[in-house]
Amino acid sequence: MLKVNDINVFYGNIQALKGVSLEVNEGEIVTLIGANGAGKSTLLKTLSGLLKPKQGTIEYLGSSIAGKQAQSIVKAGISHVPEGRRVFANMTVEENLELGAYLRKDKDGIAKDLQRVFELFPRLLERRKQQSGTLSGGEQQMLAMGRAIMAKPKLLLLDEPSMGLAPLMVKTIFSIVKEINKEGTTILLVEQNAHMALSVADRAYVIETGRVVLSGTAKELKETE
Ligand code: ADP
Ligand code: ADP
């Protein structure tokens, strides 16, 4: 589904990704694990069209997406939930979710998908008329994920959904990630928390200072933990 081949990404003179290659197959949960500053967010920003690779190729469903506009990447079926759960604080939960549907190609079934988001995240249903800025961190993470789902992605990019959340909330979020995957959405999950990430993923890549240093099935990598 996604084939990243030998990409180099720079911020000015700083090289954040150094010859990164990885693959995601349809139906998988793949995780990219690494310490703070390793280049995880940079990879997701590159896949979602916010950064351009200087070298290398990115193929998604058989076409090149390297350097394409973020909007056309969303339309092609890739949704990105950035780090730091950015929701529109002065809009309600429902309004944030509706905004997520704005860039989807197929406008049919929006009401049904909204229902589905509320089934996945019952807390959002309870708070649907509430200003999003008043939600807890975990609820804002749920909202950011729900908004991405409203774009009807084939591939969902999740940037550290567990960051700053209490263990119980992390468990909830990860079990919902599993459920979204079971319903047919492929997932690329970026995490510092290797233990949690390996517990939900099929395969994993480990990234250190801009390079992939290890890859394998989640089971294989768990044994090296
Ligand atoms: P991670 O997501 O793994 O924590 P990042 O992808 O955010 O890592 O960062 C990778 C490297 O690129 C780090 O050294 C970081 O400081 C640097 N970096 C990230 N964003 C910028 C930026 N806007 N300008 C310059 N350097 C950046
Ligand atoms: P995010 O990665 O979600 O954008 P961060 O808190 O990592 O959030 O970074 C906030 C902003 O600062 C981002 O625009 C990021 O690209 C930029 N940034 C991160 N690291 C550096 C760095 N070393 N030098 C310059 N800008 C950076």
From TrEMBL:
Keywords: Amino-acid transport, ATP-binding, Nucleotide-binding, Transport
Keyword Nucleotide-binding (UniProt): yes
PROSITE patterns hit by this protein: ABC_TRANSPORTER_1 (PS00211), ABC_TRANSPORTER_2 (PS50893)
SMART domains named in the record: AAA
Domain ABC transporter intervals: 2-225
One BP annotation, GO: L-amino acid transport
Molecular-function GO term, any one: ATP hydrolysis activity
Family: Belongs to the ABC transporter superfamily.
Protein name (Swiss-Prot/TrEMBL): Amino acid ABC transporter ATPase
